[in-house]
Amino acid sequence: MILNFKTKLRTTAVLVAVIGLLVAGCGDGAATDDRLEIVATTSILGDIVGEIVGDQAVVDVVIGPGVDPHDFQASARQVESVARADLVIAIGLGLEGSLIDVIDAQAGDALFLGPELDPRPFLGPDGVDHDGEDEHADDPHVWLDPVRMAEAVPIIVQRLEGLDPSLDVQSRADAYIARLESLDAEIVQTLAPIPAENRKLVTSHDALGYFAVRYGFEVVGVIVAGGSTLAEPSAADLAALAAAIESSGVRAIFTDAYNPTTLADAVASEVDFEVAVVPLITGSLTDEAPTYTEMMTINAQRIAEALGAAG
Q1: What does pTM read for this prediction?
Q2: What was the pLDDT predicted at 224?
Q3: Has residue 160 been placed in a domain?
Q4: Dihedral (C-alpha) 87, 91, 95, 99: value to the nearest 10 degrees?
Q5: How far, in Å, CA of 186 to CA of 298, rounded?
Q6: Domain identity same for 223 and 108
Q7: Please, are residues 143 and 124 in contact by the beta-carbon 8 Å criterion?
Q8: What are the tens digits of pLDDT across the range 56-65?
Q9: Could you say which DSSP state residue 276 is in?
């Protein structure tokens, strides 16, 4: 009995020692992961940054897929993630709303891409530059122009290399720039069948200004003016938009895939001819479009299908 008891003691001691080694090993693994921690505010930015850094950095996304960046409140965990990050990459220009206050208060280092990419002002329905009339007069939707996002890649690389000169991301960055240039050419080809008289856009909010300038469209009207999805247009605003659609012959209203289409449906119902309500993926990636390049490809295809027929 005594021998059996001693044997059990030795066995238990060995098991405790093995478990201790395993736990220590796991702890060491976490401790040796000294990669940069990057926080991207949106899923679109997270995808772009991930393409650049690969597995050389940890990329965390605050505003995840399917979430409207205009209507977002950070959780305690997300605030902690921002505070812990070596670098926060955001659009700025008012896009992320209250999250900007969190970044200003918590982030050690932040890169706001919007101001670096030649932002365009929002234009009112009279075509006048209203820059300066409010705090966020510049249009933040720069990612809807893939050429601008190609220009963003070297800006991101420069900031990353400044934080960690040992990073080797240039080849990945060059390859991704080439992919974005190919994407731009593909979009041009996809949209080519749309006749000039049909290159008119009506959108649920003012998101497609950069896209319109890049690919030769006119934005005839928006349901919610000013770039946010949160405002409430008046009945008079909606009636005026329906009249503008009738006079311009626009055959589609493009909405945000992650928001209700109630207002767009109401406007379409007031027009004398049939107007399609077509969802686009504008501010956030989705299961259908899990990458930025897929998102832009799908949007171009939907616009081409909705506006491609002459007259």
Answers
A1: 0.84
A2: 84
A3: yes
A4: 0
A5: 11
A6: no
A7: no
A8: 999 999 999 9
A9: E
Q: Which residues pair with 200 in a beta bridge?
A: 218
Which residue type sits at 304?
A
- Count of other CB atoms within 10 angstroms of residue 173: 18
Joined tokens for residue 194: 């749309």
The domain that holds 45 is classified in CATH as 3.40.50.1980
Pick from 7-21, 66-80, 230-244: least confident: 7-21
Work out how many domains the chain is built from and give that number: 2
- Name the token pair of 49: 């940054």
Q: Is the Cβ–Cβ distance between 210 and 142 less than 8 Å?
A: yes
Residues 17-51 as b/e (b if ≥16 CB within 10 A, e otherwise) read eeeeeeeeeeeeeeeeeeebbbbbbbbbbbbbbbb
Containing domain of residue 234, as a range? 193-307
Which residue in this structure is represented by tokens 């993630």?
A: 81
Contact 42, 50 (CB under 8 A): no
Q: Which residues are paired to 254 by β-bridges?
A: 203, 278
Q: What is the pLDDT confidence band of residue 248, given thresholds at 50, 70 and 90?
A: very high
Tell me: do 198 and 158 sit in the same domain. Answer: no
CA distance 67 to 283: 8
Map residue 258 onto helix, strand or coil.
Answer: coil
Strand 218-224 versus strand 200-205 pairing type: parallel
* Greatest C-alpha distance within the chain: 99
pLDDT tens, position by position, 5-48: 344 434 444 333 333 433 334 444 333 478 999 999 999 999 99
Report, as an integer, the average pLDDT of 87-110. 90
Reading across the β-sheet that carries 276-280, which strands appear in turn?
218-224, 200-205, 252-256, 276-280
Give the Cα separation of 91 and 20 in Å (integer). Answer: 46
For residue 59, list its beta bridge partners.
Answer: 38
Residues 6+ apart with CB under 8 A from 54: 169, 172
How many other β-carbons are positioned within 10 Å of the β-carbon of residue 139?
Answer: 24
Within 8 A by CB and 6+ apart from 207, the residues are 141, 144, 227, 256, 282, 283
